[in-house]
Design brief:
endonuclease; IS701-like_DDE_dom; hydrolase; alpha+beta; disordered N terminus; 2 domains; 14 strands; Transposase Inhibitor Protein From Tn5, Chain A, domain 1
Length: about 475
């Protein structure tokens, strides 16, 4: 180590990284030493992680490959404590100083794992010539905090595996509620701060999230499919009108190319960007979806709520892929927005695509989906090890040197925090000696005798079907059939 003292910020970052490593080791309740060294092997391996057994060859993993597999299959984590430790770390903020959380599902594909239980048909794209495809695997719902500006960094906060008997909407609501409660407990949000923004894609029911999380200081921003039909506010009731009062106004069809159903927008903004050209937004305040007793609302008791919000239509001149840009429809749970708030919202939604860079880093570099594990509980353990490794990379941001390849562009030395996650991992091996190492050295032992040579396997693993185990009613007719 250099004799020149480090700046105060660097010392504080090193202290925070060492403290998190100590807390992570305390969360390991079984096979703690092997799991901790396995996480360090993921962080210090040369190049992408191609196989699980290959991590046993790194210098940071001082045990054999048998201990490695035993730790993944039989190790245990105290997830509640680890989740609190991750939530207590600094959380990035958006341009307006608020916390922005993105919720998305990423699948661990397991096509030929017929003996692995709890597999579901996961929606994937780009696997074959077909645009959409259903592949068996383990879907994980992941919540991450987004940053501002052009970056590929996100702060992973939680991961939950969706099971065959789970309702995706209910699981997402419970997961977001727990994450927000942990952030409030950690002091990241206080009374008087702007509400936490929850950004979702078109696969989520924004209205259901708004209704179920209405008691939390959150604001929902979700993308809508272009085939949706929204409703305008109901017209004022005159004293001479008889009959039941109207709850919904005229229709607003998003796919109406003639724009005959579109009223005059509340705001129309133009913003010049270097990446997308001119971004135009049109907004309509107090627009709500007309809810029916189907899907997520089939078991709702009492009258269906009217959830008013702001409808946004975003159009740009170009996209980085060179394709023809299509308009993006967004719906925010806040009914009245100003023009300045609208510009901040659509920019926050575009930052949601940074989560795709994180998924690619987890799968292609850290080797999240490389192990061929049979037990889904072992898959959960390995998933949290990967999330913990990514968290340590985020804490080491700005502490490592830029070990770029000769053909790569060097980073700005005045802004070390701009290093990508892959480059921070490349220099983590040199940073590791400066942090804490709570794992103990392995004890000398001999391997077990194992199965005698030539003896067959007398206990074959059972095969499991793929798909949901509980049929959920999608409409009133299905509900009545189920009730008899």
């Amino acid at each position: 180590m250099s004799s020149v003292p480090d700046p105060a910020g660097r010392v504080e970052s090193l202290r925070r990284l060492a403290g998190f490593r100590e807390e992570f080791y305390g969360c390991l309740t079984r096979r703690a030493d092997a799991l901790f060294e396995l996480t360090d092997a993921v962080l210090c391996a040369d190049g992408p992680v191609d196989s699980l057994v290959g991590l046993s060859l790194t210098a940071e993993h001082r045990r054999g490959h048998g201990a490695l597999y035993d730790a993944v299959n039989h190790g245990r984590l105290e997830l509640a404590r680890l989740r609190r430790a991750v939530a207590a770390l600094p959380v990035p903020l958006a341009a307006d100083g608020r916390i922005v959380l993105a919720v998305d599902v990423s699948a661990w594909l397991r096509r030929e794992a017929h003996t692995s239980p709890d597999r579901l048909y996961c929606h994937v794209t780009g696997q074959t010539r077909a645009q959409d495809q259903r592949v068996p695997g383990w879907p994980y719902s992941i919540v991450a905090a987004l940053e501002t500006g052009a970056t590929s960094w996100t702060a992973l906060l939680d991961a939950v595996r969706l099971g065959p008997a789970d309702d995706e909407t209910a699981v997402s609501c419970a997961q977001v509620r727990e994450v927000v409660d942990r952030l409030i407990t950690a002091g990241h949000w206080r009374e008087g701060d702007p509400p936490i923004l929850i950004v979702t894609d078109s696969g989520y029911d924004s209205a259901r999230l708004t209704h179920d999380l209405r008691d939390l200081p959150v604001e929902i921003l979700g993308r809508l499919r272009s085939s949706r039909v929204m409703r305008l506010p109901a017209p004022a009731r005159t004293p001479t009108t008889i009959g039941r009062p109207r709850h919904h106004g005229p229709e607003l069809r998003l796919s109406d190319e003639t724009r005959t159903t579109w009223p005059q927008p509340t705001h129309h903004t133009h913003t010049a960007t270097s990446r997308y050209g001119t971004a135009q937004t049109r907004t309509w305040n107090r627009v709500h979806p007309r809810l029916t007793r189907r899907a997520a609302w089939i078991s709702h008791t009492g009258p269906l709520p009217i959830l008013e919000g702001t409808l946004l239509r975003l159009t740009v001149d170009r996209v980085p892929s060179g394709q023809n840009p299509k308009p993006i429809w967004l719906w925010c749970s806040t009914p009245d927005l100003t023009a300045a708030q609208v510009d901040l919202l659509w920019q926050a939604y575009l930052r949601r695509f940074d989560l795709e860079h994180t998924f690619r880093l987890l799968k292609q570099t850290l080797g999240w989906t490389r192990p061929r594990l049979r037990d889904p509980n072992a898959a959960d353990t390995w998933t949290w090890l990967i999330l913990t490794a990514h968290t340590q990379l985020r804490l080491a941001r700005g502490l490592t040197d830029d070990l770029h390849r000769p053909w790569e562009r060097p980073a700005d030395p005045t802004r070390p925090e701009r290093l990508s996650p892959a480059r921070v991992r490349r220099g983590f091996r040199n940073l590791r000696p400066k942090t804490s190492h709570p794992a103990q050295a392995p004890k000398p032992t001999r391997p077990g005798p194992g199965r005698p040579p030539g003896s067959p396997n007398r206990h074959r693993a059972p095969r499991h079907d793929v798909g949901k185990t509980i049929h959920r009613a999608r409409n009133q007719a299905d509900q009545q059939k189920r009730e008899g």
